[in-house]
Specification:
The structure holds two protein chains of two kinds. By secondary structure, chain A is mostly beta strands. Chain A is built from no helices and eleven strands. The chains are: A mainly beta, B mainly beta. At the A-B interface, strand 4, strand 5, strand 9 and strand 10 of A face strand 5 and strand 10 of B.
């Protein structure tokens, strides 16, 4: 079992729709959870972090965390073509002092 | 704060040659990380430093790879006797332990290595 698992996609949504990206992790001691956006050929860019159960909203983005289910998600409301990118889930804490990344989910927003 | 700087942006080398990459972290960040990313994969941890001390090195990292961070400032990653399998994007990131983990890493633009 991989430490951080994501569906590689592609996830295709129409412009204006809600995109839902999911991530599961294996280390129950994990403390903080991050979503990075990565455009093709570029480096990852931090867009959200969450460390408490529940929802955290920042503009069009909402991160959701359920530690009991070891599940993290990212919702993107009113999706725009400029949101088309790979979204990386990363987890910190537990047995490690570094971020462990999933393989990323490719999101394609269709105009 | 000019962000994390990596040099060079691109490197093409012949198999068997040695290459060295440089990373300049955000000045007030005391932790520096190296990751490697191949197409379709997430960043894979290589090693990290806190100040000048190398605290962890991935078991996936062969002895052809070495990293240094003299004086706790910039870092270099050297790959000796490069192989085609070393072709990847090498990412450097930095963070501050004083700010806490909630702030994550800041990544540099990466160095894309192609071994021919």
């Amino acid at each position: 079992q991989k430490e951080v698992e994501q569906n590689s996609g592609p996830l295709s949504v129409p412009e204006g729709a809600i995109a839902s990206l999911n991530c599961t992790y294996s280390d129950r001691g994990s403390q903080s959870f991050f979503w990075y956006r990565q455009y093709s050929g570029k480096s990852p860019e931090l867009i959200m972090f969450i460390y408490s159960n529940g929802d955290k909203e920042d503009g069009r983005f909402t991160a959701q965390l359920n530690k009991a289910s070891q599940y993290v998600s990212l919702l993107i409301r009113d999706s725009q073509p400029s949101d088309s990118a790979t979204y990386l889930c990363a987890v910190y804490g537990g047995a490690t002092n570094k971020l462990i990344f999933g393989t990323g989910t490719l999101l394609a927003v269709q105009p | 704060d000019t962000g994390v700087s990596q040099d060079p942006r691109h490197k093409i080398t012949k198999r068997g040659q040695n290459v060295t990459f440089r990373c300049d972290p955000i000045s007030e960040h005391n932790r520096l990380y190296w990751y490697r990313q191949t197409l379709g994969q997430g960043p894979e941890f290589l090693t990290y430093f806190q100040n000048e001390a190398q605290l962890e090195k991935s078991r996936l990292l062969s002895d052809r790879f070495s990293a240094e961070r003299p004086k706790g400032s910039f870092s270099t990653l050297e790959i000796q006797r490069t192989e085609q399998g070393d072709s990847a994007m090498y990412l450097c990131a930095s963070s501050s332990t004083t700010r806490g983990w909630n702030y994550g890493y800041t990544f540099g633009s990466g160095t894309r290595l192609t071994v021919v």
